[in-house]
Design a protein that fits this description.
Length: 909
């Protein structure tokens, strides 16, 4: 007695049987959904890491928002007695600074801390030994929290002694007190004899935290400045902290011609800056630093009436954002092709499922099954092999990201995984009506159909249009449709060209093999021209895969070369020193260090107004000694253009008529254009050189360089050097020289070489992320290509096995199996590799024209096209090896076909 089987049981048995194709598709969907969901999360984490890396590496002087002034804050009267309360002296100034901070746009009130200020009067001669000792008087509210007294006591407010002299108590660092030979309780006199300004050492301190950012803003406090060149007496200049209220007495020192100075800064909490608020932070900082802020009115007295702040951190944030945008652009252009390959391979996998179900579908159709029933049955299998693994993959990524990184993708970030999961359902539903038919292969016909010609013409037209628009538009920020679509369109054109051309030599081979004695070449060439399983998909996979491998190698080479060139230009010599203020005496002592053959200083960025034919714009002026800078720069890139280095800086150091000769940045030169009337702060200037690319003074793009001979007439003063460039003798050890430099310039200074800069750039998250993305894209396309070849061989396995069985009965050797398989995939594979190599060599030209890679190198000049054979060998060789390995495994399996089983199969077609 027979038992009735339910429809559900039949469907379940149908899905369980011959499930190999479904397992392949499910695995592919799982991998693609993992990548599709993880990609936006990884890009976000990479952006945060790049921003954090740049900000954490900044010194306090480059991180904090700061302002300098050649005045003291407005001070109260000292007649008849000086003030004793620090609030009476500083409160109005600090309240004004706090108002600026609180009034800044979000998120600056949270990013910036309360303002710190240090006012000083430098270089007052100590009358007890005026030839060898000098003292800088410093006044800073809140300095007490930065020091720890080791002897004596903190200074009290200035007082008027019984004899009418002014007595000011101070504290010195341990090293400074030792060098000045000053004991606690001893008195020193400043200025000239008639000036009753008595300084009493009340105590000695050491820093509460030597690594505190406070000391980077006042580097000369912990260690004295010592000048000892061997030609004159050793001179020691120390910096002493007095009671903050004693700042009101500094006017007595400035009356001797000593120049006061005040530095103000807002400590910046970089932890409050992340990828979400980085753009708002940049906008707020630009607004804060674009204007001068009122501090006091002239009616209140003489002193600081306004401050204009500078924020070097803005450029670093903008660079990190630009890196994130460029990373997205590079990845979008590179993955557009692989995305097309993934879709094609997914369609090929669905076709594999369809081929495995073809006999069942034919039987069901013959028994009266409707197209709708066939579609529902294949749709169920599509959901099992598509939606289920897609949900599993996306869920796994979301869970892992939440647990490991505390990150979550936006809702839109889950759409790609959903589309991947739905793809098998849609593809199988569309292919269901053809389950009982085998489509004829017409794409290798020499004449071709009219429809094929129209489609190919449209694709070529769109690709040409996209390419023209991309070159006309130039660099773009982030990702857009044109940027992503162009490489995919070009890869499709390359595939069409390959499919059109490779049958031509293959036809010639077939004609020659027809007259030969062997059967392998004849059958292989004939099957390669007519086998339906070989078409657009495997050729597209190989063309795109090889092109990604080649273009990745070329882009990595371009980045590596660009980083090396940019790092040399950023240093501008052999060694660059930053992180402090440097005197001419210190530079003279640096020049005497063993191994040093040249030294040059560059001032800090002095805000100025550039007048271009009556149109005013803000700029920054750097003051240099042109001859010294040309000597240390040598033949390499740097602050001066090559023509000025060749004449030893003479063009910059000598006047051009009545105008001041200047060197300008590329951005400033572009703004000037052909203008004739140029002025900097009212002084006539003439451009004698243009420098494009990175320079030792940082990422600032709008700047002007003048020689120190014109500083007074142009700026009203010769500002202090903030950057020191050092040229080393051949064979000198940079490490040994660095120790001597720190001894002279202070332990807190930052010393860099071009190799260190290059290593830092290449080890940063941004470059590492791009490098990893390029290598990952190469690996993924290799897997997709190998999978496409494997599926192609699998689809052709049955007819190949029947031909092979017939050949074996006729005495063909076992190697015929491998020969037939190689003939099926060999000709299109070779053609695709050649086309992919050519196409891959052209893609970087498109990338370099459309995506700005300068943020990765730290340069203002786009990296040039270049090929490093070693890098290209890694990417292209790795791709070919991986693809060949998986293909060989399938070939090995194909040789196991049994003749008897193959001969019992139905006739092909």
């Amino acid at each position: 007695m027979s038992r009735r089987v339910s429809t559900r049981a039949l469907v379940a048995h149908h899905l369980r049987s011959r499930a190999g194709g479904g397992a392949i598709v499910a695995s592919l969907v799982l991998v693609l959904s993992l990548v599709a969901t993880a990609a936006p999360i990884a890009l976000g984490l990479l952006g945060d890491a790049a921003l954090r890396d740049r900000l954490d590496s900044l010194p306090a002087t480059g991180r904090d928002v700061a302002a300098d002034s050649p005045f003291f804050p407005v001070m109260p009267e000292t007649d008849p007695f000086p003030p004793t309360d620090a609030d009476d002296v500083w409160v109005d100034f600090l309240v004004a600074l706090e108002g600026i901070r609180r009034g800044a746009d979000e998120p600056l009130p949270d990013v910036l801390g309360e303002a710190r200020a240090v006012a000083s009067v430098p270089g007052a001669r100590i009358l007890e030994d005026p030839a060898t000792q000098a003292l800088t008087m410093a006044f800073s509210p809140g300095y007490e929290s930065e020091i720890r007294m080791v002897e004596g006591a903190a200074p009290g407010p200035a007082v008027v002694a019984d004899d009418g002299s002014l007595r000011v108590e101070v504290v010195l660092s341990r090293e400074t007190a030792q060098e000045l030979e000053w004991q606690v309780g001893d008195e020193r006199h400043l200025g000239s004899d008639p000036l009753p300004y008595v300084v009493v050492l009340s105590g000695v301190f050491e820093p509460a935290d030597a690594s505190s950012p406070f000391w980077q803003h006042v580097p000369s406090v912990l260690q004295p400045s010592i000048s000892d060149d061997g030609n004159r007496a050793r001179e020691v200049t120390g910096t002493a902290f007095a009671h903050p209220a004693s700042a009101a007495t500094a006017a007595m020192l400035t009356s001797l011609g000593l120049r006061p100075a005040t530095v103000v800064w807002y400590p910046t909490d970089v932890d409050e800056i992340d990828a979400d608020n980085a753009e708002k932070t940049v906008a707020a900082l630009n607004k804060l630093t674009s204007v001068s802020h009122t501090i006091a009115s002239s009616a209140e007295g003489v002193g600081i009436l306004s401050l204009k702040f500078d924020a070097d951190i803005t450029g670093e944030i903008e660079l990190a954002l630009a890196q994130q945008s460029s990373t997205a652009g590079v990845i979008a252009m590179l993955i557009a092709g692989p995305i097309g390959v993934a879709a094609a391979v997914l369609a090929l996998g669905c076709r594999l499922i369809l081929e495995s179900r073809r006999s069942a579908m034919r039987l069901m159709s013959a028994r009266g099954a409707s197209v709708g029933q066939l579609r529902r049955l294949l749709g169920i299998e599509g959901a099992i092999t598509g939606l289920v693994p897609a949900i599993v993959g996306a869920s796994a990524v979301v869970l892992a990201a939440a647990l490991l990184f505390g990150a979550a993708p936006p809702a839109a970030g889950l759409v790609p995984a959903l589309l991947v999961g739905l793809a098998p359902v849609v593809i199988l539903a569309i292919l269901a009506p053809s389950a009982g038919e085998r489509p004829l292969r017409a794409d290798l016909s020499r004449r071709g159909s009219r429809l094929r010609l129209v489609v190919e013409g449209v694709l070529v037209g769109f690709a040409a249009l996209a390419l023209v628009l991309l070159f006309v538009r130039g660099y773009t920020a982030g990702v857009d449709l044109l940027l992503a679509a162009t490489p995919l369109l070009l890869s499709l054109v390359a595939c069409l060209v390959t499919l059109r051309l490779y049958p031509l030599p293959l036809t010639a081979v077939l004609s020659r093999a027809r007259a030969g004695a062997g059967a392998d070449a004849f059958l292989g060439a004939a099957r390669a021209l007519r086998e339906p399983s070989i078409g657009l998909t495997p050729v597209l996979a190989l063309v795109v895969g090889v092109s990604v491998a080649v273009s990745s190698g070329i882009l990595l080479s371009a980045l590596q070369t660009g980083v090396a060139d940019a790092s040399r230009a950023q240093i501008g010599a052999d060694v660059r020193v930053t992180g402090g203020s440097f005197t001419r005496d210190q530079l003279g002592r640096v020049a005497d260090v063993d191994g040093v053959v040249g030294v040059a200083g560059i001032s800090g960025a002095e805000p100025a107004t550039l007048d271009i034919d009556g149109v005013k714009r803000a700029t920054s002026v750097f003051v240099v000694e042109a001859s010294e800078l040309a000597a240390v720069q040598g033949d390499g890139p740097g602050m001066l253009p090559a023509e000025l280095v060749a004449d030893a800086g003479a063009s910059l150091g000598s006047g051009a008529g009545a105008a001041v000769p200047v060197v300008v940045s590329g951005a400033t030169a572009d703004a000037i254009g052909g203008a004739d009337d140029l002025r900097v702060d009212g002084a006539d200037v003439a451009v004698v050189g243009v420098t494009r690319g990175p320079v030792p003074t940082g990422v600032r793009e709008n700047w002007v360089v003048i020689d120190s001979a014109y500083a007074e007439s142009t700026l009203g003063r010769d500002p202090t050097d903030r950057t020191v460039l050092v040229a080393l003798d051949e064979g000198a050890a940079p490490g040994d020289v660095a120790d001597d430099l720190r001894t002279i310039l202070g332990s807190a200074v930052r010393i860099d070489t071009s190799d260190e800069i290059a290593d830092a750039i290449e080890s940063g998250p941004a470059v590492q992320g791009v490098r990893g993305a390029l290598l990952l894209a190469t690996a993924v396309t290799a897997l997709l290509s190998a999978l496409a070849l494997a599926m192609t061989l699998t689809l052709a396995a049955a007819p190949r096995a029947r031909v092979l069985a017939l050949l074996r009965t006729l005495g063909a050797p076992p190697r015929s199996a491998t020969s037939l398989a190689l003939w099926e995939i060999g000709p299109p594979a070779v053609a695709a590799v050649v086309a992919g190599t050519v196409f891959g060599a052209l893609v970087p030209l498109v990338v370099l024209a459309a995506v700005d890679l300068r943020p990765f190198t730290g340069s203002s000049v786009q990296p040039g096209y270049g090929i490093d054979p070693a890098i290209l060998l890694i990417t292209l060789g790795g791709f070919l090896a991986l693809a060949a390995l998986l293909t060989a495994a399938v070939l090995l399996v194909s040789r196991r076909a049994r003749a008897a089983g193959a001969l019992r199969t139905v006739e092909e077609g």
